[in-house]
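Title: Prediction job returns without error message
Component: structure pipeline
Severity: low
Priority: P3
Assignee: unassigned

Description:
Job completed but the reporter wants confirmation the result is attached to the right record. Sequence as submitted:
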Amino acid sequence: MMVRRIVKTGVAHALHLSGADKLMGLLTGARSIPLVIGYHRVVEEAAREENCLPGMIITRNTLERHLDWIGQRFDFITLDETGARLRSGEGLDKPVATVTFDDGYRDFYTHAFPLLKRKGIPAAVFPVTGLIGTSQLHFFDKLYHLLAQAFSRWRDRHRELSRLLVGLGMPVPERMETRDLGAYEAVRALLDSFSQREIYRVMESLEGEIESEEELLGNLRLLDWEMLSEMRHSGITIGSHTVTHAFLTNETFQKVLDETMLSRAELEKRLGTKIEHFAYPSGRFNPRVVAAVAAADYNFAYTTCSHQDPMYPFLTIPRKMLWENSTLDSLDHFSSALLSCQVHRALDWASPCKLEHRRAWPTF
């Protein structure tokens, strides 16, 4: 891992110093559309977030450095303005950027919202409607917590988890065939392979074996309706992120329709505003899912990769997701070269999207 970070840091510096990062952005088309940046949680200290999935957090200080660097090179605009530019085909004489936050964690309100207001930067937040104002956790956060607890007690993690899945009549994902299976790798394998209903069965079985310590997960609390209303009136754009954060490519078409339509209806009812924007949970989409989002009457939808569906370009708008370590060099220092390469997608070749988006897939 350290070798990979050293190589990545060296490559980023070489690309940035030579200007090749910007050239790669032009060649890939990243500079031809508005830059949309995505984040999840905003925290005070990363070291305190041991129960959080990797890649989900950014510290307030690092976020501010991101915003300052981007703000010196791009004009910040709202998500509505981004959509209007895309529809009009307006040229980008000066680059523009939009900032978004997924999942509706409460620390967006406590840490990011004041920072954005102080700097006068517009932003958008995509909450999960079924969890707003509740004490529930995102199911993937709870799954990670349960697996981390189980793995700390199991001698043979792969054998024990495989036994649990087989006992539930579920196949063992090939990605779990690793000697050093960690909780994060197991979570990703399960989320890639099973529907939300099946994941809940796994969680229920784990709860029967592991005494969950949910009081330790208070930092994963979510926004309530009053916070969302306050932020909307302060200029924050609110978009939909489904009802339950189901990974839509693993679900039935009816489930996808319910997740997209009902979340939009609830947000419009509770906030009294039209909801035009949708973010795919974990960026997962295929032609069938995009068709459901179109049927739910969204005008714009956002992914986490650079692929755009030619039939629905406005419903597959690329976002660049960032987190704490995405712009830290091998010495754990903030690197403007790494951020520049991320913004221009000059490093995407090193971690390409693993999802299949070909139009050849059946729509229904």
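Comment from assignee: result matches the submitted record. The radius of gyration is 20 Å.
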